[in-house]
Amino acid sequence: MRSRIPTGILGATGLVGQRFIQLLDNHPWFEVVALTGSYRSVGKPYGEACRWVLDTPMPDWARNQIIQPSDPGTVTPARLVLSALPSQQARDLEPLFAQANLTVCSNASAFRQEADVPLLLPEVNPEHTALIGYQQKLRGWDGCIVTNPNCTSTGLTVALKALHDSIGVVRVFAVSLQALSGAGYPGVPSADIIDNVIPFIEGEEEKVELEPRKMLGKLHGSEVSPAPITISAHTNRVPVIDGHVVCASVELSHLVTKQEAAEIFREYQTPEISRCLPSALPLPIIVMDESDRPQPRRDRMLGRGMATVVGRLRPDPLFHLKFTVLSHNTIRGAAGGSIYNAELLVQQELLQ
Amino acid sequence: MRSRIPTGILGATGLVGQRFIQLLDNHPWFEVVALTGSYRSVGKPYGEACRWVLDTPMPDWARNQIIQPSDPGTVTPARLVLSALPSQQARDLEPLFAQANLTVCSNASAFRQEADVPLLLPEVNPEHTALIGYQQKLRGWDGCIVTNPNCTSTGLTVALKALHDSIGVVRVFAVSLQALSGAGYPGVPSADIIDNVIPFIEGEEEKVELEPRKMLGKLHGSEVSPAPITISAHTNRVPVIDGHVVCASVELSHLVTKQEAAEIFREYQTPEISRCLPSALPLPIIVMDESDRPQPRRDRMLGRGMATVVGRLRPDPLFHLKFTVLSHNTIRGAAGGSIYNAELLVQQELLQ
Amino acid sequence: MRSRIPTGILGATGLVGQRFIQLLDNHPWFEVVALTGSYRSVGKPYGEACRWVLDTPMPDWARNQIIQPSDPGTVTPARLVLSALPSQQARDLEPLFAQANLTVCSNASAFRQEADVPLLLPEVNPEHTALIGYQQKLRGWDGCIVTNPNCTSTGLTVALKALHDSIGVVRVFAVSLQALSGAGYPGVPSADIIDNVIPFIEGEEEKVELEPRKMLGKLHGSEVSPAPITISAHTNRVPVIDGHVVCASVELSHLVTKQEAAEIFREYQTPEISRCLPSALPLPIIVMDESDRPQPRRDRMLGRGMATVVGRLRPDPLFHLKFTVLSHNTIRGAAGGSIYNAELLVQQELLQ
Amino acid sequence: MRSRIPTGILGATGLVGQRFIQLLDNHPWFEVVALTGSYRSVGKPYGEACRWVLDTPMPDWARNQIIQPSDPGTVTPARLVLSALPSQQARDLEPLFAQANLTVCSNASAFRQEADVPLLLPEVNPEHTALIGYQQKLRGWDGCIVTNPNCTSTGLTVALKALHDSIGVVRVFAVSLQALSGAGYPGVPSADIIDNVIPFIEGEEEKVELEPRKMLGKLHGSEVSPAPITISAHTNRVPVIDGHVVCASVELSHLVTKQEAAEIFREYQTPEISRCLPSALPLPIIVMDESDRPQPRRDRMLGRGMATVVGRLRPDPLFHLKFTVLSHNTIRGAAGGSIYNAELLVQQELLQ
Predict the structure, then answer these.
(1) What pTM did the predictor assign?
(2) Most-buried pick from A261, B316, D86, D268 (CB within 10 A)?
(3) Residue C27 is among the residues annotated as catalytic for this protein
(4) Cα–Cα distances in angstroms (integers) from residue B81 to residues B9, B95, B105, in the given order
(5) Which of residues 265-304 of D touch A (CB under 8 A)?
(6) Contact list, B180 vs chain D (CB under 8 Å)
(7) Over the stretch D132-180, which tens digit does the pLDDT of each residue have?
């Protein structure tokens, strides 16, 4: 057994940071050697600095690690950092790590739309890591930044990829019913959401309309040309702990029956390079036949929270196909996504 | 003061039946003289037969009325019946009342799509009551049946009417986040909906795709030709007590700015014949400018639960306009809607 | 009609501050002339500084008032201030207002246990305002501070008062199921309370064990001797928007039947001096006979949110009587309580 | 490896029935050979008859088993039946199985208070199975009935046992905040519990006041004399999916500090005969030190849902000790409890 790669977690005390720690407990390839946090937490043991809100206990190995500032010098000997930093901090700090020869797998939105930064789902576009070489050259970095998409884009993009590969997707309507954990912690006040829905999430619709296009885009040398798909998104917050639901209506290049669509989803395979990674599901899309599924509480943990769950396939009177997608927003859509990306880099020998 | 019209409530013990009683407490035009229920309730006083679930106390006048079978002979001297019957019972029983010279204002879906039965929103298509004459002739009835639409169609149709009148609506995407009271009582088990969303409501999408077209259609003699609008609907249940939210993307006959759209909604007036009825709002659409409204808990009671609340106006990348509509599903979308229809019939001298 | 007393609200942007504004809309005796807030809000119009979270719209008169610092000089010409300040600020600032000849009716806990400060429920101990004279003399104030109890103590104390007057209360077990609004806004994160209960509220049990004893105590000249009652409290947070429930088991000086207890509660009258105030209910306790009431969502607004609702009367195997009490925590238990206290002072000619 | 004991599940389609199936998936000692249900389900495959509501998928082996009537003849070759029957059916049917030489481990309340029927928690009173011999003799049965307590009594009794053994418990106040799954499926309508609490559960308080006394009682020959403890219970329903919380105040034979109490709970060991069973936790009580734990969502799955979780230890002003207990109501408190009882019978060679 090779020794595990020393890994730091940036922004370890927040909700996504906690998921990183939960998911890296006993990870075969990565070993957490450094946790960073804000100035209020620095110097405290993690067990004291962090208000742990997950439903499994905090791993013992994390409890006594001392929180460091988010600085390349403090995460030694980490070669990889997983970033749960807020967007503005990510913009300022992640480049410092990349410059210092660290691989940054980031959940933040800061660099997702930079032309030389991969926006990556290993089930969808593992070849986009080819941008890394250009990124290093262009920016003079020894390390690099790789990003995963917004939690709402994640499941939708995996589902669209299957359709796009086999038929071609032209236009998409996407309306989300998003879980509370997407807003972090403390996040949405309970007074705002019990017996209620909030029909607005800052900046979210723009991301859902943009990010899938980059991931479904074609790589030409140092560039990704976005897929020629138009997306219209409405995003809503609902009183659900975890698991984002998206109602999608899709125009394809030609009509398919719901049986054909189900087959396309079921048979879609994770690209070979990504298929046997520790976080991978070889068949990343689960299709449910029950008329009232997927449901977030009941189905979010399918495939250990890494599955894209599709249901309610039916014809659309305006476009071609209607369906519902569910994806666990803080596992597949956040911490699990960044880890999966890091695994891909290892597999591609871009991280050692 | 004229004396009030004696009125019966069919299916008075259910959730919509309870709303009828709540809304008719002190109604200036209608006086409840008969309550009907299923065989399990018949013969019992209402206060005993009904598990009252509303948040205001049961009116005293209702408490001791004895539940009757749903039969024209038992509601004497009622001239009007408001029907909260389940669809299948409505199909069987409502014609018996119409035949017996009673006006039936029904919340049931049974007759909504019959060519000679008005599907009626007084803010939208009061002129469709002209179908009543044909209905009576065709069916040999002295009374008549008038219906109000499905709760999810209601708010959406009022909003579309404003746009359709001033610009013309061509295509509509509509995704609902629907309250629990839409499923009646006991309705959705709590085990199914706490920390959850159910992405399916039996028969609902079909209604939302069909009903607005009839209400927005043109009356030609004895016929209504449906408006040439195509609608695609996804309907979802969320953990909200009352108030249906619909996210809509609309293709118009030409582009409008969001300011123009806001003005169109704000200025839309209830047709003159319906404007001064007890349940009317002269300006039926309230536009909210806050970025995160309307919200069901906070806005459902605007206009005493009779308003159509519109917010989040913004351009749509695929069609022209995106917005969110909220409407109280058991007031405007059910019991309040049937009562408002009955008021319109009085105003038009079709009910005396 | 006498002119209304100019009134300031301290801490007007928070949840209790908002309730003050909602309840003072059209109040016959008090007119809001000043709103204060934290340094972040000072100088802004209320409509902009305040994230309004109540379910009725913000009154227009409040929208454009400019937020002032919480300083006696800025609330001129107010003669009364209603305080929704956090406890520590209340301790520092309220005396400045009392010194400056203002009457302070405070919802804060800071001064509740001071021997010369009335802890006041007009239904229970209006005579305790006699402490004010001693307070002014002792502290050299022209104005004064009067407090209302903690929201959980409120309903419990009203119920205990009825029993104590007619039978005598010796020992009390009290377990609360408290609403989210008791924690203010943003208060409890939704991630902590959906599908959950939090069995702890900082400082709350101590208050519930102490405050009722002072209010039920006897006034002897300048002192109140606490009632010789021992109380044991457990306090819990539950996913309810408004309305605190308390399960109580009470040892009395002798046994009563549940019928006798119901009669005692039903017949308990607000003392004459407090009975006709604008916020008063002449019979402050509502007894529900249904086996599963009171319930917070359905019964919290009884008596306009000012009632103490008692139900589930039954014998207790250890003590004498078990029952459940419900009281609206931000109306009767907070803003409405401070206002009611101010009304009592007017009635007693202690505020003019 | 010995071959597994063929086992039937009575009432397999309900919520507790589903938990039986979930927990028996891969059970080392028991193999499910028969599933029974009501006449509506009989003859259908389980996958079709059952509306599966748990958050892990239905095991494949259950999906195609055909539902049988609840009759000893139909569960052949089962030697053990686990009963999730409603109380009235249990009263009628369970004796037929016991008569037919089957061991019945029942979750129903029907026989819990019969003098010759063990009311059993393997952590608490495994020696009470000695009643079985008397039961068989008295009733002329070859098989037997063994029961587990009500879900709310379960955790409370385990906690009281630790205190009773080491100090002696005299009086107990117990107020529950109970999860929705305790009411089965469909159970509590969502309209009754969102933003609400129901302060009443039919028949529950009586059980909590009675059952712990039998389990903590001493066995004398063919009789159990109930422990001389008086319990007063208030039971409430709250919007929580799984996990019952009980707030307890306890009078002991003498005062202990909270540190001593914590030690007593932590050191309490499952009796040796029950300690190594598949469902056992050697130390059945987990003590949490955090001020706001245990919480149902976060802690109910500790010890695979079989732990009794205790927290908030503190002195009680009336009695001696206050604390909060959490126990998973459909695992430890229902299906898991019946299975654990069956395991104990195997260990004691009362079931082979």
Answers:
(1) 0.97
(2) A261
(3) no
(4) 6, 12, 6
(5) 297-298, 301-302
(6) 190-191, 194
(7) 999 999 999 999 999 999 999 999 999 999 999 999 999 999 999 999 9
